[in-house]
Amino acid sequence: MLKNALRAGAATLVILMAGGAMASDLKVAVQAVPASIDPASENSNVSLRVIYSVYDTLVKTDFRDGGKLKPALATSWTIIDAKTVEFKLRPNVKFHNGETLSADDIVATFSPVRIGLDPNIPVESKAFLGGIDHVEIVDPLTVRIHMKKNDAIILQRFANFPSQIISAAALKSSASYQDFAAKAIGTGPYKLKSFKPGDKVVLEKFEGYWGEPKAAADEVTFSVVPELSTRVAGLVSGQFDLITEVGPDDIKQIDAGKNTKVVGGPILNILGLFYDSTNDVLADPRIREALNLSIDRVKLVNSFYGGRTEVPHGWQMPSFGDMYLADRPLPEYNLQKAKALLKEAGYNGAEIVYRTRNYYTKQIETAQILQSMWKAAGLNIKLEIKENGAQVFADDDRRMIVDGSFSAYYPDPLGQFWRRFGQDTTYATGKYWKVDPDMVAMGDELATSIDTARRREIFGKMLDKFDKEPNGAVLYDLAAFMGERSDRVSLKVLPNEYLDLTTDGLSFK
Amino acid sequence: MNWILLRTGRALLTLLLLIGFSFFVLSISGDPALSHLSADVDASAIDAFRRKWGLDLPLWQQFFIYVRGLFHGDFGMSYATGRPALEQIMAGMPVTVSLMLPTIFAAIGLGLPLGAFAAMRRGSTADRLTITLSVLALAVPNFLLGLMLMYVFSVHLGWIEPSGIVDWRSYLMPVATMALPMAAIFARFTRSAMLEILSHPMLDTARAGGLQPGRIKRAHVLPNIAVPLVTITALEFGHLFTAAVVAESVFGWPGTGRLLIDSVASRDFAVVQAILLLTGTTMILANLLADIAYGAIDPRVRDQRRRRVKA
User: Fold this and answer.
1) pLDDT tens, position by position, B155-201
2) Would A246 disulfide with which of A195, A481, A496, B236, CB 3.0-4.6 Å?
3) What is the least distance, in Å, from the CA of A92 to any CA of chain B?
4) CA distance, residue B298 to nearest chain A CA (Å)
5) Is there a single domain that holds both residue A83 and residue A148?
6) What is the ipTM of this complex?
7) How many domains does chain B contain in total?
8) Is the separation of the CB atoms in A263 and A486 below 8 Å?
């Protein structure tokens, strides 16, 4: 009798324990997992989704509070001058490897190998952090970061990707940078449990996490399910709690489900075009302006997204705060003006190649509609659909129009517009165009001035000049949608590709 | 002996062509640095990537280094993970093989009896139904079949988890997706091979000699259809891997087939080449085994080869 009771009790306990564990385990189906969980090594939406839970920055951008900068691994900071910022580090912060945060970790995070200054280690951080001159240790919990020149967004640089702080001990003890990257040692609310490239990333709650809010789940599994239909089936059947990269065409089906719904919307990223103005046909700015004037962006947004995303007011986003020029109009759609410009430029129907690929949501469909909009203006556009980015961006005679995303890594024109169209960017150095000297001068002032009113004025002038001599076109705000198993979890999305899996962003039902 | 040498030589030549062809075609199809790094990277990162993986060397030199490595069992490193390509492939191989084996058994186990059954009842409703079903199974693309199964068994009925390997039931849909079109091929092939034998005059002789129908089938019909069936089985090995590529992608299985898709997309050369080499070798071995099996199954082939060697 007693034996049976004990047995039943044990069984109940096991069931309860299993039930308890399962209740806060999160299963996420993703289209891909990153090749590396080192912030400096990979810049992709799949990487951002994971690293947000594993690492912290010195300063935190609170996307739920208008992008305000708040203390994180640094408890306070002082902008000493436009080239120097000092951070007081939070004491007793533990890394996932048990080490305690100190100034050495900040030095290691922004060491040459991690900011793209080692010619043998390919990392993706130089465009963001290459302006760092050196990190000075004032005391074990105080660092001073010196930039090479005045930096208008000096604090933003340490509040966003790829400034996530890594462990100096992990870097030092690794045989190679690749080995270090595989360890993924941060101070974030989750630590890496296992990682199988191309298949799975498993995170587990880090009990020693210093801050609030804590991890919401005991364990999070990101499983690769490349097919969207399979991800949707997995959500409907209950195999997954969340699925990523839901297309606008699937929203209706998921929302119609009893236990499933779609969350998400516009993110801090614009889908846009690049014009290779070194090409003979596109060398005339009037033809490029005509291309821009012929695009009915509102129609694009309404037909693809049914109003779930928006057309931005030029190369900017409301998240820019003080730097957002709210009174700027929407990009102009004026077919007559476009036709007149083409006539004035003596456009003779020469073929203009538009190279694209199937990477962003509705990318090919957008290209096809653009082609017909341009045709209405009298432009002869040849659409070439390529397999990968390397083929789209290949530097040859047929590179004329290509498309891409313009993510606002910093809530400032330097993090979006000038990051793409500046004179030191991949595109300028990749010979898409030569940046006009006036524009370069304005860009330099925008990057180094700390006078907000003056920066707003310059930014406005830069956008005006760009409208007349465009090297690209704004299309619409990219949107990111996720499917949620609403009977089990509730997710509060962020306006970007990060995934907040703390108790602020995720709750279990 | 000469025959085996000839076949082995031909197999090696095929492999060599495969290595060269895949190496050069992949090399001109896209720059791995641009595929692995994002559009935001600095030109110095692209240079660092090329230097790290020897992509800054002339193509012929890269090929030479690659082939020299092969002779030492080194298939190169994956650009994506920095791990040996072979290690990555071997990690996914058990998954792929665990799909391929049940598939081939299911395809033969289903297709052969169905084909034989249809041939025995030529012109009947059962025969027509078999043919119609096999045409249908062949005509529906694998990925569509997979999605249809998923819709019925996962979404509608909720019996099976649609993605990955959860338990034994996870095998049902991918194996069915791969095996059904293949079973259709076996069924159609068996049927036509059997019909050909059944109309052969030797069967009249056997019947006239008083042999029972069952004995006729065992002693005369089945051995005669064995040779074409072995041929088709060997050929189907190639299709088997292609089907695994589709099934693994649709059902989210972490096998070598999906690895191939990912590696081609990201221009992870070493991984793609190693997979092509391994599948190529498997195909060649399967065909070699089929050739050897002909001799064992068919005395005429055996005698012919002996005569050729003597001459």
Assistant:
1) 999 899 999 998 999 999 999 999 999 999 999 999 988 888 888 88
2) A481
3) 33
4) 46
5) yes
6) 0.84
7) 2
8) no
